[in-house]
Amino acid sequence: MWNIIAWNLAALFALIPVALLPLRRNAGRDLPYWASLVLAIVVPLGWALGQLSDGWQTSLSVDLWVGIAGSMVVFGLIAAINRQAWRLTPLLVPYMILLGLLAVLFAFVPAEPLTEAMPEAWLDLHILVSMVTLACLTVAATAALASFLQARALKLKRPTRLSRFLPAVTESERLFERLLIVSELILAIGVVSGLAMKKAGTGSVFTFDHKSLFGMIAFVIIGLLLIGRRVCGVRGQMAARVVLMAYTFVVLGYFGMKFVHQVLLS
User: Is residue 239 a contact partner of residue 224, using CB atoms and an 8 Å limit?
Assistant: First the structure.
């Protein structure tokens, strides 16, 4: 028990330095930032993989840590490629800390049995696709929120310290559009594999659970947004709101139902 508590707290505290570093004067993509970002990736990732060493776990706490680790890995890769993406740190990492607090709080909540009756390799593929989709959409939603906050500050002509730090509206929109395209492709695979799991477990492709339903709603919303951006020029706060709405459905599908079953109804 104490080992679990220690690892949960270590993974949580590893996220804090990179959340604080952007508060420095003249903060930048320097060695202290990268060192703290690596720490925020390695420790949660190691804890998540450690919990999965004996096979997939269905507990809400494990799912949260896997989601945190995946999101930090994807963010780290994007921050290394895109010179402006690191400016999303003040939005993304505090959100990860909040999820980490929930993971610590629910660390000893009993898990549900894994009921999917299908080959282990196919199940692993479905879970991997789901986690990558969640990670990409998490960063995309963060970029959408940054775009929303920047546009609002410009509209009100009242910039804040946070809005000055965040990427420009155009940079944020370009980033979340690219991530949405990747997420839509991966989400399509996730929806198909999820339906295949239902077919194997129930014998019917059209037996939707809440996770499948929310995933398909998010898939449709993202698809319509991408089409709208190309055809109708949907931009600005409207696009950001749609991204955040799609992400809400994904979060409800991944974490919401487990919270209801394992916490509220336990």
Answer: no
Is 56 in contact with 127 (CB distance < 8 Å)?
yes
Is-contact 25 128, C-beta < 8 A? no
Report how far residue 173's alpha carbon sits from residue 180's, in angstroms, rounded to the nearest whole number. 10
Spatial neighbors of 143 by CB under 8 A, at least 6 apart, are 85, 88, 167, 172, 173, 175, 176, 179
Q: How confident is the model at residue 183 (pLDDT cuts 50, 70, 90)?
A: confident
Q: In 3D, which of 140, 141, 129, 124 has the Cα closest to residue 191?
A: 129
User: Is residue 123 classed as helix, strand or coil in its secondary structure?
Assistant: helix
Q: Where are the alpha helices (DSSP H) in the chain?
A: 2-13, 16-20, 31-51, 60-81, 89-105, 120-156, 161-165, 169-202, 210-231, 236-251, 257-259
pLDDT in tens, 195-227: 666 665 555 555 556 666 777 788 888 888 888
> 3-state class of 157 per DSSP?
coil
Separation between Cα atoms, residue 32 and residue 191, nearest integer Å? 40
- 149 contacts 158 by C-beta, under 8 angstroms: no
Question: Coil, strand, or helix at residue 203?
Answer: coil
For 225, other C-beta atoms within 10 Å of its C-beta total 23
Cα–Cα distance between 77 and 135 in angstroms, integer?
Answer: 12
Six-digit token string for 39: 């720490």
